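My main concern about presentation is that the manuscript never shows what a single data entry looks like. In essence, backbone conformation is discretised, so a fold becomes a row of integers matching the chain in length. An entry of this sort, consisting of the sequence and the corresponding backbone structure tokens, reads as follows:
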Amino acid sequence: MIEISAKLIKGYIYLIGEVVECNITFHHAPSPSHKISQSNDDVFESLAWASAQINCQCSTNVKLNNENTLKKEQFFNLNNTALPLCTQDNGQLELSTKPKILFCDLRLLPGQSKTYTYKEKIPSDSPPSYRGQLVKYSYKLIIGTQRVNSPIKLLKIPLRILPIATAINDAGGLCNDTTEDLAPANPFLEVRQQDTPFEIALQTLQNITARRKPNFYMISNTWGKVARFCLFKPAYKLGEDIIGTFDFSVATVTCVQLSVSLQCEEETTIHQSSGDTIKQSRIVTFNKQHDVCLGLRYTQLVLPTPLHITPDFTTSLMSLRWRLHFEFVTSTNKSLENATLDQTGWQGPADLSVETMVWSLPIKIFSTTPSQVVQGLQINNSHRLLIR
């Protein structure tokens, strides 16, 4: 019996463009009962070969164009890969890295182990991991091995890939410009190494989400001003709190209560072989804050962004955007105009006519470093497979 154990060195969460590293150990577990062997063939356990690759499966509730599927299969050249069985998963193969052979003809004595290190860079044009209502992108590190004249055994390790290319495209001129190259050369200073594109992307991401640019919005309906809302910055990283303030001192209409929700809008566009285009959209609510603001002059918004959500991204199949969805319950009842918190003995009316108004404000959510995401999620990074 051979035990295959795989451990992801940096965890299971990676950014697009990052290198996935995994230690794969093949161990010949000794038999509990001692047996006298007549030949070396009875002692050794052997495997013909083993390889590893990263695959991304795309599944949707709408049948995709068969021509596009055929083109992708020809591009990945599935018939020549070492792991053709991985294509039996549900959905369409969206991405497949080139298989890397770990060994050929491995023979292990009882108690002997052999460890191999697998390294693979996530392609820059990869979609991120996403489990939506209409489309799902799922990543797996697939380790395959086989005995002679035996079926292929697969060990599938789930991965989570976060987008980072969006930060570069949206950065524009946000990168810190420097005139260091124009300064006179100093032979006594150590030459600073050039940053890699991945490090530049991380710095750009930090610059975008760190910029504070307060935006003020006057919220009004047909009866007048409801509130003045201030959002301190429009871009956030995973795990950050969305902070804002509501100012009711400028209102001419009484706001009884309000709620703010963090929502994602998933929109798909699928072109059928018949020439028809299918467009669908779904809105999913994650966190929500509800406040009764009657009698308040000011109140605040503190809405955390969960670590398990997927930041903004766009592919040829779908796009994901984030927004804040507001619901204001207002009333034109005259008895509410003088209601304040410091007033004693005030009693609300028995009947109150109200109106509800809604408003959505687009925001940007970006990725954060995988180490911060891993701290908030308890996931086992070790996986095992027994071959008997």
